[in-house]
Amino acid sequence: MDAIIYSLPFLMNGLGITLLVSAIVVALSLVVGVLLGIGLIYGPWPLRWLIRLLSDCIRGIPILVLIFVVYYGLPPLGLNLSSFWAAVLALTVFKSAHVIEYVRGAVTSIPRGQMEAGMAIGLIFPQRLRYVIFPQAMRRFLPPWLNGVTDAVKGSALVSLLGVVDLMQAINQVIGRTYEPLPLYILGALMYFAINYSLSTLSKVLERRYSYIRE
Amino acid sequence: MTATKLLQIDKLSKSFADNQVLKSIDLNVAAGEVVSVIGPSGSGKTTLLRCVNFLEVYDGGSIQIDGREVGYVDATSRKRRGEVDLAGMRAETGMVFQSFNLFPHLTAEQNVMLGLRRVRKKPAAEAREIARHWLSRVGLAHKTDALPSELSGGQQQRVGIARAVAMDPKILLLDEITSALDPELVNEVLDVVRQLAVDGMTMLMVTHEIAFARDASHRIVFMADGLVSAQGTPDALMAEVASNERLRNFLSRFSATAH
């Protein structure tokens, strides 16, 4: 019990970093993934080919390899990132590749006639996306994406391998001082679980909110 | 050459890969005229209609609405119009689809309002007023807040018509608009089209409702194998049945299966 009380301030700091890393990664990968996803669906063929290649390669590499490549591989090429930003960059690249696929799946599930109906009333391309395609694609995009957000939170534990003091690293550091691994790992696991359980609950609420759209 | 028609199609051709769907179509529609296009499946009727608002990119010939080339900057250079220019032209032609293509996430009223708000840039109150006006014209004043999924096929198609005509198009294109409907719902949609014809709306429609085409159009165009095989007033076309074997075959097969 003492160990837990002693550990709490450290774990809370770590939790803060975990949430910060996750939030940045989720936000950046959403922007990058949606843009590239749209490029993959509607872009000219060289762009589509490039994005397809990129997405397939990134998704075919273990996330840990990607993190090490960014942290140890880029400095010789002149890009020196702190361990925090190297981790964020690697996770963002990884996550973006997944968002590209969620976008592709969601948007291509919308019948072609929807785009045509938008054309027929004179909407320009960005308007067709905004008012016609995206609101409908949302229903199919949200479940896998929110699932991916929980993956991002869990995956952020890998940043501890670069020495970033996130929740995982904070737990390890406290255990190094108290020699009580089991209660502390359980406590850490509960914290991760609490975050992800709230996220999946939110995901169910959102899914219900969009379920009125039927094709 | 007579005065320029509202819609003027000259030597239009279009291929999908090796399949030449439209060979050389000449077709004019004057303002206020209702023209029906009939013909066997695969004769290129729907493709023709889709070329008129550039949902299909055509390969050769020319389509002009009010003297402006559709899709291309001019007929000779074949330089494609920019997105904004193209959208502006499409807003001038209303299109009603066989499968309705209503926006399922928007209510009937919002479906009609979308183009008025975002293309015509009308304030919400005015757009809503116009939408309600047209929804009541198609007999759906009581369904303004219904989602498409809550409407019958006939009701959905009437919203589709309201959405197209609310934009005040120069010409309305109707693509087999009753083909996806249960037989008992066909008339409520045709009645709306009939009323639009009476009001002087210029219309080009592809239809399988031969009786309706005879009775509601000024002119019927019979297409076969990517060409206009015969055209004229309904009476003139029927008079041609004796001399045009394809038309005779088409109409006889039609009356055998449809009635």
SSE blueprint:
The complex is a heterodimer of chains A (215) and B (259).
Chain A: H1 2-42, H2 45-59, H3 63-73, H4 83-108, H5 112-120, H6 125-155, H7 167-178, H8 181-210
Chain B: E1 7-16, E2 19-29, E3 34-38, H1 45-52, E4 60-65, E5 68-69, H2 83-90, E6 93-96, H3 108-118, H4 124-137, H5 153-165, E7 171-175, H6 183-198, E8 203-206, H7 210-216, E9 219-224, E10 227-232, H8 234-239, H9 245-258
Parallel strand pairs in B: 3-8, 3-9, 6-7, 7-8
Antiparallel strand pairs in B: 1-2, 1-4, 4-5, 9-10
In terms of per-residue confidence, which ranges of chain B show pLDDT below 50 for 5 or more consecutive residues? none
| Biggest interface pair, counts | A-B, 21 and 28 residues
The number of distinct helices of chain A, counting runs of at least 4 residues, comes to 8
CATH architecture of chain A: Orthogonal Bundle
Question: Stretches of chain A where pLDDT falls below 50 for ≥5 residues?
Answer: none
**Mind telling me the C-alpha Rg of chain B?**
18 Å
Which structural class do you get from the secondary structure elements of chain A? mainly alpha
Q: What's a quick, concise take on this entry?
A:
The complex is a heterodimer of chains A (215) and B (259). By secondary structure, chain A is an all-alpha fold.
